[in-house]
Design brief:
Layout lengths: L3 E7 L6 H8 L11 E4 H8 L8 E4 L4 E5 L4 H12 L14 E8 L6 E2 L3 E4 L6 H37 L7 H21 L8 H4 L1 H13 L2 H53 L5
Parallel strand pairs: 5-7
Antiparallel strand pairs: 1-4, 1-5, 2-3, 3-4, 6-7
């Protein structure tokens, strides 16, 4: 078995694997935990060219795809255009914004060697392509979500600047939109990417489980997950503060209106007693 090359992309937030499977004639119901693997005749029909046995594409429900042993940009573009027909949100031209490359080398070694660019294993195991692809797919998906979190932070910073300048009123729509972005971020990251979930093979093979855990630790997926979760909780706390300030200001405004109305009524009563009103 020759070495394998991997190229991962995060191209959208969600991909409906079952729609693609039906179109490809794959009689299987896919769940969130497993990728759709395109290879052989199916991949050949999509790319409109012959493919090698080792070439495959893994499509993940959380919006990532991983190419194995694909060397030409045309193959990547063709597959992206194919997926775009099912998911119009995919930006084919900007698909390489969140991407990562990796390699699997097979040679005589006493233990598995992990680096930033490749992993060296003593012999090939059938689960290596899926496990490596899963880690890469989650890593680039996290990279995409981390950038989205930065955009939310920028928005909150603008709101904080307004507070510092004495502009205390924040509209309900603005609060709702910002809160929705935080909730969407949390759903995409903590729920949909499923950092804590493991591929099925890791539960039936201890060596597969050990390899996956090593990859997971090397790419720091659990640590990045915890950081994102912590930052999300901080965002919620900040939004609670904004909401409290906004509601307090509205409550104070209503109280002043009531006071003004009461004073106005008192003035009218006094004027009536003094005979200045008909």
């Amino acid at each position: 078995m020759r070495d394998l090359t991997f190229k991962a992309f995060a191209i959208t937030n969600e991909i409906d694997l079952n729609k693609i499977a039906v179109h490809c004639g794959i009689p299987k119901k896919f769940t969130w935990e497993e990728p759709l693997i395109l290879r052989g005749e199916i991949l050949k029909s999509i790319l409109h060219k012959d493919v090698e046995e080792s070439q495959m594409v893994l499509v993940f429900s959380f919006g990532s795809i991983v190419f194995i042993n694909h060397s030409t940009p045309n193959e990547v573009t063709a597959l992206l255009n194919y997926l775009h027909s099912f998911e119009p949100d995919i930006d084919v031209k900007d698909a390489d914004r969140y991407t990562d490359d990796y390699n699997l080398h097979i040679k005589e070694t006493e233990s598995i060697e992990l680096t930033d660019e490749y992993v060296v294993v003593p012999e090939y195991e059938r689960y290596y392509p899926e496990l490596i692809s899963t880690v890469l797919a989650k890593s680039v998906a996290l990279e995409k979500t981390e950038e989205q979190l930065g955009k939310i932070n920028d928005k909150l910073e603008t709101m904080i600047d307004r507070l510092e300048k004495g502009k205390l009123r924040i509209g309900n729509k603005e609060l709702a939109r910002t809160t929705a972005k935080i909730v969407r971020h949390e759903y995409n990251t903590l729920a949909y990417i499923m950092i804590l979930d493991k591929p099925d093979i890791t539960w039936t093979s201890s060596t597969a489980g050990e390899f996956y855990d090593k990859m997971l630790e090397f790419f720091e997926l659990n640590d990045r997950y915890k950081i994102l979760k912590s930052k999300t909780e901080i965002l919620y706390n900040i939004m609670d503060g904004f909401s409290t300030i906004s509601h307090s200001i509205r409550g104070l405004f209503v109280e002043w209106i009531i006071v003004i109305l009461i004073l106005f009524e008192i003035v009218l009563s006094l004027l009536g007693i003094a005979g200045l009103l008909p």
